[in-house]
């Protein structure tokens, strides 16, 4: 986005689980400050990809560099430089807001002298001022979501992976969460986020469509809409399709072996 070297580089990435191919020759890069959305049906390979990039799974083919580090050669170094948030939020329900943040700050190696400032930042970002002693299990889904994001960035990572983080959260909370993501992107954090929601995909700088383990399209929301229109009859091209329409057309074209 700004001419700087990519923070994430993926080349020919593949992964199989027995006879099942989860990823097949996936390749892309993510620039500093870019918010990259990954969109695809259930079982398309999104979570497998993110787990590989986080150093939680070993790739079966190809290579992936995160912050310049090969994830297959040094996964621990990768994990020390990234933030990761799954759809399950990974919070401890029987601990308070502050206890959760202090725990994750310790896991991520936040220096003791910086812990109070970073915890305060996360509390304010999540909008939980005055609720520091509240048990997490009593929080609504939107609060938990923003708290989990705060926990994931306590150590100020420059790369953030979000695996369907807004699943099951109400639309207002999802929009507030995306405001936070865009703020992080504006501060130079590279964000790779998987989602099922078309309205969320519109907020991304670029979108990668993945289906049956293969990357079938990559571009800005507008570029993907134009790509989906490329093989349509003139009458059908009178109005630009929605992103949801484009997603369906591209997936169908890929399944038919005739992606535009």
TrEMBL record:
Question: Which UniProt key words apply to this protein?
Answer: ATP-binding, Cell membrane, Membrane, Nucleotide-binding
Any one GO molecular function term:
ATP hydrolysis activity
Stretches assigned to the ABC transporter domain: 8-237
SUPFAM superfamilies assigned to the protein according to its UniProt record, in alphabetical order: P-loop containing nucleoside triphosphate hydrolases
**Key word Hydrolase present:** no
The record, for InterPro entries, names: AAA+_ATPase, ABC_transporter-like_ATP-bd, ABC_transporter-like_CS, P-loop_NTPase
The protein's name in its UniProt record: ATP-binding cassette domain-containing protein
Organism of origin: Duganella vulcania
Source lineage: Bacteria, Pseudomonadati, Pseudomonadota, Betaproteobacteria, Burkholderiales
């Amino acid at each position: 986005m700004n001419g700087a070297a990519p923070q994430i580089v993926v080349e020919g990435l593949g992964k199989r689980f027995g006879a099942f191919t989860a990823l097949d020759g996936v390749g892309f890069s993510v620039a500093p400050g870019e918010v990259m959305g990954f969109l695809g049906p259930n079982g398309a390979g999104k979570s497998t990809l993110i787990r590989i990039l986080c150093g939680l799974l070993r790739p079966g083919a190809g290579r992936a560099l995160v912050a310049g580090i090969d994830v297959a050669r040094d996964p621990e170094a990768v994990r020390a430089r990234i933030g990761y948030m799954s759809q399950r939020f990974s919070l401890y329900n029987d601990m308070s807001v502050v206890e959760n943040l202090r725990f994750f700050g310790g896991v991520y190696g936040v220096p003791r002298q910086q812990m109070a400032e970073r915890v305060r930042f996360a509390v304010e970002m999540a909008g939980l001022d005055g609720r520091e002693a509240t048990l997490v299990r009593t929080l609504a889904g939107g609060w938990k979501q923003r708290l989990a994001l705060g926990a994931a960035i306590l150590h100020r990572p420059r790369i953030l992976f979000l695996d369907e983080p807004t699943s099951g959260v109400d639309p207002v909370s999802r929009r507030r969460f995306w405001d936070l993501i865009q703020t992080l992107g504006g501060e130079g954090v590279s964000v790779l986020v998987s989602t099922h929601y078309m309205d969320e995909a519109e907020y991304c700088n670029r979108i990668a469509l993945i289906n049956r383990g293969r990357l079938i399209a990559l571009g800005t929301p507008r570029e993907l809409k134009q790509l989906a229109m490329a093989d349509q009859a003139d009458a059908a091209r009178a109005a630009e399709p929605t992103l949801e329409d484009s997603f369906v057309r591209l997936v169908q074209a890929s399944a038919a072996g005739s992606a535009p």
